[in-house]
Amino acid sequence: MKKTIKTGILSFGTSGKIFHAPFLNEHSGFELYAVVERNKKNAQLYYPHIKSYDSVDAFLADPEIELVIVNTPNATHFEFALKAIKANKHVLVDKPFTVSSSQAKQLFQEAKKHNRFILPYQNRRYDSDFLSVKTIIDSGKLGKLVEAHIRFDRYRYSIGPKVAKETTVPGSGLMYDLGPHLLDAAISLFGNPLSWEKTKGYFRPNTQVDDYAHIHLKYPKGLQVFITMSMLLAHVQPAFIINGTKGSFIKQRADVQEKQLMDGMRLTNPLYGIEDHEKKGILTTILDDGNKKQEKIKAVKSSYSNAFDAVYKTIREGHSYTISEQQIIQQLEILEA
Length: 337
Description:
alpha/beta; Rossmann fold; Dihydrodipicolinate Reductase, domain 2; 8-stranded mixed beta sheet; 6-stranded parallel beta sheet
């Protein structure tokens, strides 16, 4: 029988309500135990037995909590993660892990000193679009990789209400909002780049933060990877375009889980994690006779439950975590450069 991990969440906003609580509640390896709610007390409407604390300090003083999920504004990740480690808790941190590589290094050192795990939560590794791309690349059907384009786009012309995202505080702006997802995809698929170049844009009226960002990653053997994110794209483009010497693969962004969760779909629904059939990837390869072959690739069913499987196996079974310290430090070095 599994020994469950009593887990607390530092915030019950969108992240806590959509990306963490449902999975902790359903996963047999976890017990959704506590939450911090400074103002409105909403968590018990969904989870009647959950404990709700008024402050982070009171929450961390609870000896029953073994794992803390840090899902607060970006600039607070370092402070709260460090407090949790010193309170002898394991920690799972939303993206971006911290706002600087030096902070990340300090957290990893403190975790080792206290014999605790501190783990980054990169849930987009468990989206069906990413999994489709990884499967095609690993198959070798594209030949030697030449270039890759990875995008994450939205259309939000108006300035949003969230101070932590729309004002000049550490970790704000689009580069820190969507960049961690795209950089994690690139680093996990292709490894660490040899070098990179970054561009940021400010296009919305009166914006204080970047609403467009582009990173060009340069890899060994000539591979070029282009990461783009925009808040002003009216017509969404493919999330992944991968070109190699023997073929190309194009995949639309699915993001089906987020929409399903926001619409209230239960994880037990057989349709959960199954993307629209119209978003199948397009694989085009060149045959030995020079003719072109094109086929539609159906994505596998996806679930962020797999992210929590990885957390459980690391804490309880001693498995290596799927995202390495070195990968996170490299990601942050690029973000902060």
